[in-house]
Amino acid sequence: MHTVGSWLALARQRLAHHSDSPQLDAEVLLCHVLAKPRSYCLAWPDVNLDRNTQNTLDMLLDARMSGMPIAYLTGRREFWSREFLVSPDVLIPRPETELLIDIALALLPASASHRVADLGTGSGVIAITLVMERPTWQITAVDCDINALRLAQQNAQRLACPPITWRHGDWLKPLQGERFALIISNPPYIAADDVHLARGDLRFEPRHALAAGPTGLDALQTIAATARSYLDNGGYLLLEHGYQQHTALHALLQSYGYRNLLTHRDWAGHPRVTQAQWILSSHTRNDA
Fold first, then answer.
1. Sign of torsion, CA 203 208 209 210?
2. Contact 267, 96 (CB under 8 A)
3. Is residue 253 exposed (0-12), middle (13-18) or buried (19+ Cβ within 10 Å)?
4. How far is Cα of residue 96 from the mean position of the Cα atoms in its chain?
5. Residue 19: helix, strand or coil by DSSP?
6. What is the DSSP letter of 135?
7. Most CB atoms within 10 A, among 112, 119, 173, 228?
8. What is the pLDDT of residues 124-140, one digit of tens each?
C-alpha cells in the first residue's frame, strides 16, 4: 500500500520518460482522484491510500504513460480562468486560442447587442467565454459533431452562462438567412499527412477537428468563401490558423473580397489569428 508521498514518487519515476512534466502530471492525477487541491497532496504526504484509490490511480497512470492527455484523463481543462469539461469528442482547449477571445472583445463595443457565430464550437470554450464576458451579445454556436455539441451545452449549464443558440451542422449551413457582426472560428488547419498528428496529444484528439486536406487550408477556405453571405456590412471574420499559413490565408481572403486584413501573433510570437472585414461597395464581387 502507498501513501500520498510514496505514490507521487513512484508516479514521477514512471512518467519520467513519458512526459515533459512528470511531477505535475502525477500531482494532477492524484488530486483528481482524491478530489483535493494540490496543497493537500503536498502537505499530507504520509496519508495512506486505500486499495480502490490506488487501483484507480494506477489505471490512470498507465493511461498517461501510453500518451493519453491529462485533460482526457481528468475530463477537465482550464480556459480563460474557467474550468471546462472535455472528452475525446473535442479538442483540448489551448492557451493560444485565448488570443481569439482577446481580439473579439476588442473588435466590437461591449455595450451593444451584437450577433456572433462560433463555428466548430467543440467544447464551447469560445462561445461560452464570449457570452460570459459580453452578456448582451447574441451568440450562436455550431458544430457538426452532435457529441461535441452536447458537451458544449453541458459546459454552458455548469457555468450558468447567458443563453447561447446551439446549431448542429457543417460550418455555416445551419445559419441560412442569418447575419452576424462577427464570425469566429478555430477550425482544423493541420495538413492531413502532417507527422505531428501521430505525436503527443494529437494522437488522441478527434482527427476531423485537426486535419483539413492536403495543405490544412480546406476548412479555412470553406469558411472564408461562405462567410461573406452571413456577415453584416462591416462585419468581421476572425480565424485561428497555423503559424505558417497566414500568407496563404491572406491571399484567400483578398481573393474573396475581404478588406482590412490583420494577423495577430500569439504569446510565442507566431502568426496565429487573422481578422478580416466584409465591406460592401460598388467593387464588391457579385459572387459573394
1. positive
2. yes
3. buried
4. 9
5. coil
6. T
7. 119
8. 999 999 999 999 999 99
Question: DSSP states of 168-204 as a string?
Answer: ESSTTGGGTT--EEEEEE----B-TT-GGGGSGGGGT
Please answer whether residues 187 and 220 qualify as being in contact, where contact means their C-beta atoms are separated by less than 8 angstroms: yes
Paired residues of 271 in beta bridges: 265
C-alpha cell at 167: 446549431
**Which cell goes with 171?**
460550418
- Which SS3 state, helix, strand or coil, does residue 91 take? coil
Cα gap 151→15, rounded to integer Å: 30
pTM listed for this prediction: 0.90
Coil, strand or helix at 61: helix
- The alpha-carbon radius of gyration of the chain (Å, integer) is 21
Torsion angle of C-alpha atoms 106, 148, 204, 51, degrees rounded to 10: 110
Q: Give the count of beta carbons closer than 10 Å to the beta carbon of residue 244.
A: 10
Neighbour count for residue 199 (Cβ, 10 Å): 10
pLDDT band with cut points at 50, 70 and 90 for residue 110: confident
Please, is 266 exposed, middle or buried when counting C-beta atoms within 10 Å of its C-beta (0-12, 13-18, 19+)? middle
The grid coordinates listed for 130 are 464570449
The closest of 239, 272, 235 to 257, measured between CA atoms, is 235
